[in-house]
Amino acid sequence: MRGKLWACGRVVGPALVLAVLVWRLGTGPFLEGLRSVDAESLAAAAGILAVTTVCCAWRWTIVARGLGVELSLPTAVAAYYRSLFLNSTLPGGIVGDVHRGVSHGRDVRDVNRALRAVAWERVAGQVVQVLLVVVVLLVLPSPLESAMPPVAILLGLAAAAVLLLARVRPGGESAWGRVRRAAAGDIRDALLARRAWLAVGLASVVVVAGYAATFMIAARSAGTTAPPSRMLPLALLAVVAMVLPNVAGLGPREGVTAWAFAAAGLGAGRGVAAAVVYGVMVLVASLPGAIVLLVAWFRGTRLSAPPFREGATHA
Q: Do residues 47 and 283 touch, judged by C-beta distance below 8 A?
């Protein structure tokens, strides 16, 4: 019952955000965003997403190797494109990640370990993302400038707790003890191992920078002319909102950008338009993932088709 409520909330929540935005702002900002998309911005998004996807796939291979489930970079890139396309078109925002974890798990005959690799890869990326957001918001003016010092302190305490968890080897056979032991082992082997943490961190920084640059291009296409120093904090806030439950990418992103742009004096409607342009750019840039899906489907139908026998007759 609780799982059904959570699944329902992942769809209803973003839909309510969109309904409130349409009620308060009308459909104008959404239509303006669609009209603002141009070939130049789409080409830029495709190029940036290619770089960020390779970095994400590289990060995934490092984490998977640390957990003992090998994964080649070309396979990871194709799977990550497929994951991005599914996340951009289906409700929830995590269907693609679950799919790539299960697919990899079936290939290596260890679905549990493969899913853990996907989960820790995503967690590592989001941790670096949050750290970068906090640093930028501490340095540059933003709507959350006054809240950043206590947030930075809390993040420091959380990081210390994670490091302690990774070093302590809990005993006992209770369920909680087994979970702590498994989590500590995963963090130690996949994220904090020698040469792994630096590569994971570097890949994550490039990914966040790429997402922020893409949003700033989208905002420029939507008519925002604010300088980069003013736009960067807003772009990073939008990037953080994208990890929240959504409906085909929509919902929290538009809500956060509407609030952030309004608080920065740029207009809520302009923020929604920028978010819509960004969504279209990412969807188009992730279309190679649709090709990966089609190729996999075609191969599956070929393999499942009965062999042709010479001389066979049709009824």
A: no
Collapse the DSSP code of 143 into the 3-class scheme (helix H, G, I; strand E, B; otherwise coil) and give the result: coil
Lookup result for tokens 């070929």? 302
Q: With contact defined as beta carbons under 8 Å apart, do 84 and 286 qualify?
A: yes
Residue 275: its H or E element? helix 268-285
The dihedral built from the CA positions of residue 208, 213, 216 and 217, taken in this order, carries a sign that is negative
Q: Decide if pLDDT at 172 tops 70.
A: no
Beta strands in the chain (DSSP E): none
* Mean pLDDT (whole number) for 75-103: 91
Banded model confidence at residue 104, pLDDT cuts 50, 70, 90: very high
pLDDT of 315 higher than 90: no
Neighbours of 248 (CB within 10 A): 15
DSSP-derived 3-state class of residue 250: strand
Amino acid code (one letter) for 264: A
Separation between Cα atoms, residue 123 and residue 283, nearest integer Å = 23
196 vs 13, higher pLDDT: 196
Q: Assess if residue 188 is contained within a domain.
A: yes
Do residues 152 and 132 touch, judged by C-beta distance below 8 A? Answer: no
Do residues 269 and 28 lie in contact, with contact meaning Cβ atoms separated by under 8 Å? yes
Residue 165 resides in a domain: yes
Number of structural domains (the chain) is 1
Q: Is the pLDDT of residue 253 over 70?
A: yes
Residue 288 belongs to what H/E stretch? helix 288-304
Cα radius of gyration (the chain)? 22
Within a domain: 217: yes
Residue 89 lies in a domain: yes
The domain in which residue 256 lies consists of 15-289
